[in-house]
Write a structure and sequence with these properties.
It comes from Tunturiibacter gelidiferens. This protein has 311 residues and is of the alpha+beta class. It contains eleven helices and ten strands. It has helices spanning 3-12, 38-42, 44-55, 93-102, 131-145, 192-198, 215-228, 233-243, 250-268, 273-284, 290-310; strands spanning 18-25, 31-37, 58-63, 84-89, 111-116, 119-125, 157-159, 164-165, 172-173, 175-178.
């Protein structure tokens, strides 16, 4: 039995939980997904199968949050509750882990998984988070500690320690370090001072009929048209902020709308994402705090890229 893996799963989930395991084979580029009760995943025979698959070049992942019993997929609507916050650190790992440990913005992590040399996944066990609050907090964690901006979904999968990371040749063993044995609440994460700089809205999106168009949608269409006609972004930002004085923070709303529309247009015109990020940084370097300007630009560029991919 892989005791490192079973210990990790036992710490992360509760008896009776339904979990999702994902196996992605590096050699054959195939994937398998299994949605099973925790107890089945911990059984020696099941662990033996996972070890066998891992030995044959399959990377082993687990969804960070439990699923509803009876689920067959790992879509967002199948996630039962928020169990963890997490951040994926792939660049300058040692320095960023040190900064995270020293920061008073977040509590001590429960778990730090070393997925390969210098690359980490950091987990906090939490309760009291709804899905919106989790996603918002994950984005702020990414901005604060320069994590992977793609890892902010409630159905995100994480590498399981005790198995090999088959992305490399030779494969690298995934190790784990455990820290605090605590369960954290939203108030334990003091990231609120970054919210405005990150331009993450503090209110939920309300349901509306498909045939209804919001003020924000009208703003988006207007800004996109003005940018396409060559209007200066600084002037456009001021005009939008003036038009939307009903917003809790009109300036930040206008900055994000204009920058998102700009990033989308630049990408559609063939500009590289690196150049888009650099342009966004230059545009806002006097308006956005240095600590978040770069991360904000990366997040906006990546979001614009995903918008285009969904079309």
């Amino acid at each position: 039995m892989n005791r490192t893996a079973t210990d990790f799963l036992t710490r992360c989930f509760a008896p009776g939980d339904t979990i999702a395991l994902l196996l992605r084979n590096e050699s054959t580029s195939t994937t398998q997904q299994r949605v099973v009760p925790l107890e089945r995943a911990l059984a020696p025979r099941y662990q033996g199968w996972l070890v066998h698959e891992n030995h044959n070049s399959a990377n082993i992942y687990v969804a960070a949050n439990p699923l509803f019993a009876g689920s067959r997929r790992r879509t967002k609507d199948c996630i039962a509750s928020v169990r963890h916050l997490y951040i994926d650190i792939d660049v300058n790992g040692e320095a960023r882990i040190a900064a995270l440990r020293a920061s008073d913005l977040v509590p001590e992590p429960n778990t730090i998984v070393a997925t390969s040399t210098g690359k980490y996944q950091v987990l906090w066990r939490v309760e009291g988070f709804d899905f919106y609050t989790q996603e918002m907090t994950l984005k702020l964690l990414t901005l604060a500690f320069h994590g992977d901006i793609a890892c902010t979904d409630c159905n995100r999968v994480l590498r399981v320690p005790g198995f090999r990371n088959c992305k490399y040749d030779p494969p690298q063993l995934i190790t784990v370090e455990y820290g605090a044995d605590a369960t954290y609440q939203p108030d334990d994460f003091r990231l609120y001072m970054l919210r405005e700089a990150a331009c993450i809205p503090p209110v939920r999106t309300q349901y509306r009929r498909p045939d209804m168009h919001t003020h924000s949608e009208h703003d988006w269409a207007w800004v996109s048209q003005e940018l396409a006609h060559g209007k200066d972004a600084a002037i456009l930002t001021k005009e939008l902020a003036s038009r939307r004085s009903d917003k809790p923070n009109p300036s930040y709303y206008a900055q994000r709308t204009v920058d998102m529309a700009s990033a989308r247009q630049w990408l559609l015109q063939g500009t590289s994402i690196q150049d888009v990020i650099a342009s966004l940084e230059r545009r806002r370097q006097l308006e956005i705090p240095n600590a978040t300007c770069s991360a904000r630009a990366r997040e906006i560029a990546a979001t614009a890229q995903r918008m285009i991919a969904r079309k």
